[in-house]
Specification:
The chain is an all-alpha fold. The protein is 69% helix and 0% strand. It has helices at residues 3-40, 61-94, 99-102.
Length: 110
């Protein structure tokens, strides 16, 4: 492999490593957000652990391509989880109680 290809491969591998770590962070953040919403609605929170992402390191072109596929699956999983969170928020919004209805239950309200 010539020097230009080696540099390109190194750049691709480096970007892939960064992308996979960012996707792992995104999935943890989305899971944490969903967990906060779900707990307030009495549902079980989704596990926010993303197994193995931090241990992944890519060195070859095949590793980088596999890493891109892993990142893609992670983004899709985050999208699905955000959809679940959105559904919960929509349920909460549709069941909202007006301030006037809550006034007797609030501290200091007369």
């Amino acid at each position: 492999m010539n020097e230009l290809n080696q540099e390109t491969l190194r750049a691709l591998v480096d970007v892939t490593n960064k992308l996979v770590l960012e996707v792992a962070r995104l999935r943890r953040d989305v899971a944490r957000l969903h967990g906060r919403i779900a707990r307030s609605e009495g549902e079980m929170p989704i596990n926010d652990e993303v197994p193995g992402y931090e241990e992944l390191r890519f060195w070859t072109l095949q590793d980088a391509l596999n890493g891109l596929a892993t990142a893609r699956r992670g983004v899709i999983a985050a999208q699905e989880q955000l959809g679940k969170s959105e559904n919960l928020l929509n349920q909460i919004a549709s069941q909202s109680i007006s301030r006037e209805e809550m006034r007797p239950h609030l501290k200091g309200s007369k």
